[in-house]
Amino acid sequence: MVKDEYLRKAEVLIEALPYIQRFNRKIIVVKYGGSAMVDDSLKRQVIQDVVLLKLVGFKPIIVHGGGKEISRWVGKVGMEPRFVNGLRVTDAETMEVAEMVLNKVNKELVTLVESLGVRAVGISGKDGGLLHVQKKYSGGEDIGFVGDITEVNAKVIYDLLERDFLPIVCPVGLDDSFQSYNINADDAACAIAKAVHAEKLAFLTDIEGVYRDPADPDSQISKLFVKEARDLIDNGNVGGGMIPKLQNCIDAIEEGVSRVHILDGRIPHCLLLEIFTDKGIGTAILKKEGIQDYDV
């Protein structure tokens, strides 16, 4: 007699089958940030998820941040982190620290992926002219070397994917004068997802998902459509850092990304649970109603 626990494992695999079939050879961009970057156990679980996606036929791309680690190192060298409207004020000294930290994080992730048997290449937006930027202002205020992406050289990513590498991108870009700029990692992930026509874009965050009422923990939305997302912003149901994140989701969908997921990176294996199960655990944002998660 087969034990119930083995049958449950088989049922999980069968539940994942239509998703594996639907997204085989499709590109998925994972924006990796938040607590999952600083907790070693969570970090390994996220990378295990991405490696599994690669091995079952997906074409994953990791775009990572490093805000908490940058702030820690800025403090170590005697500077005070400063933010305007949620964006880090980045003077020349802070830019130097940010680039050093982001490259350090990048190579740590490459090492972790390689240790799990998948070939990875870590690059910044400067490599091959991947991310071209112009200076970004926040409400008209100069916030230093913070960049707005104006162009993505998708060929860099395509070349790596075609040679079976897993690209890991840190969000630093160049302007017309070849000056380095720090880029918001959400913006970088969104721009790359649009440029490579990704099937999915997943944001790993420190929240459970999108809520109809932020004060009601039972109002989490499992599936959200573009029109509803716009209504949440326009009606003031979401605020703070969720507004630019939702706007990025809407922009990505309208530029051809099929699905965007907002996930709680503090939950072990959140990527697998969202992508390969019928219910999911975060918020999936879709273009239109009447489709299943694995439909075209």
What is this structure, in a nutshell?
Helix content is 40%, strand content 25%. It has 296 residues and is an alpha/beta fold. Helix 6 (185-195) runs parallel beside helix 8 (242-254) and helix 7 packs antiparallel against helix 8.
Structure report:
The chain has 296 residues and is an alpha/beta fold. Helix content is 40%, strand content 25%. It contains nine helices and 16 strands. It has helices at 4-23, 40-55, 67-76, 92-115, 154-162, 185-195, 226-234, 242-254, 270-276, and strands spanning 27-32, 59-64, 83-84, 87-88, 120-124, 131-138, 141-152, 166-170, 172-174, 180-182, 200-205, 210-211, 220-221, 223-225, 259-264, 283-286. A hairpin with a 5-residue loop joins strand 9 and strand 10. Helix 3 crosses helix 4, helix 6 (185-195) packs parallel to helix 8 and helix 7 packs antiparallel against helix 8 (242-254). It is globular and about 60 Å long. The model has no long low-confidence stretch (mean pLDDT 87).
Gyration radius over CA: 19 Å
Order of helices and strands: HEHEHEEHEEEHEEEHEEEEHHEHE
Class by SSE composition: alpha/beta
Straight-line N-to-C gap: 39 Å
Summarize model confidence as the mean pLDDT: 87
Using DSSP, what is the number of strands? 16
Largest sheet, in brief, is:
8 strands, mixed
Q: Choose one word for the global shape.
A: globular
The helix tally amounts to 9
